Every structure is written in structure tokens, then in C-alpha cells.
Amino acid sequence: MLIISTVMYVGRVINYEVNLGRNQPTRGNSAIIATYDDQDARHERVYSLRQLGNELYVSANHWPRAWYRQAPQNPNVEVKLAIADDFMKYSAVPLEGIEDERVKERFKPSLRSQLRMGFPRREYLRLFPGN
Known about the structure:
The chain is α+β, with helices and mostly antiparallel strands. It has a single domain (2-129), classed as Electron Transport, Fmn-binding Protein, Chain A (Pnp Oxidase, Chain A, Roll), CATH 2.30.110. Helix content is 36%, strand content 34%. It is built from four helices and six strands, in the order αβββαββααβ. The protein has a six-stranded antiparallel barrel with strand order 1-2-3-6-5-4. β4 and β5 form a beta hairpin. The protein is globular and about 55 Å long. The relative contact order is 0.20. The mean pLDDT is 85.
């Protein structure tokens, strides 16, 4: 019975993540981040933009996270707010130490959200204007 329950749960998580990736829903704090891979191919994803003080952050809160791995390799990213017409240039920097802990605590997803997403590791990038 435990195996069946586990398989069903994993299936629900996969279904949730696939539908989220297909639909790319936008809300008031949504942004589109454009990253570039090793061949300079552009990849766009919709993510929630978080602000803490004057700093802007985007997070990898889901299992699909190729964009997050691409950003540190090529930190020159472009971000477009859901309400904006144009992309703006940013540099994306992974968080470390106290800043990482502070941001993760401030933007901790609810237990319900974590259950739907399958408890992926959360990783954040800070965005610096211009590049």
C-alpha cells in the first residue's frame, strides 16, 4: 500500500509541475526571466519576482530548474515584469550565507505548496540592474 501511495503522490507532483510549466501562469508579482545556455540559445520562464527591501530576487522553487543552472554560468539575464512591455538587463547572482537564510525564511512556501511541488530544494538569485 505504501508503494502505491508513493507512486500516486509522485505522479501528482509530476502532473502539477508539467501543467505549471505548460501554462506558465502570471500574477501581479510575475516576471519573465530570459537566460542563455552554453550555445547562447535564449530560454524564457515565468517566475515570481520577490522584493525584500531594495533587492530583487527570483527563485527556483520547482523541480524543473534548467534556467537556474544557466544563470550562474551566464549571469547576464533579462527580466520583464508581467505589466511591462520590455525586458530589462540584470546580472543574476546566487545567494550565500546569511542573505540566503534570510530570503528563504522570508519567502518560505506554505506546507500545502510544498506538498504540491514535492518538496524541491529552494534556491534564489539576486538581480542587479544592468549588465
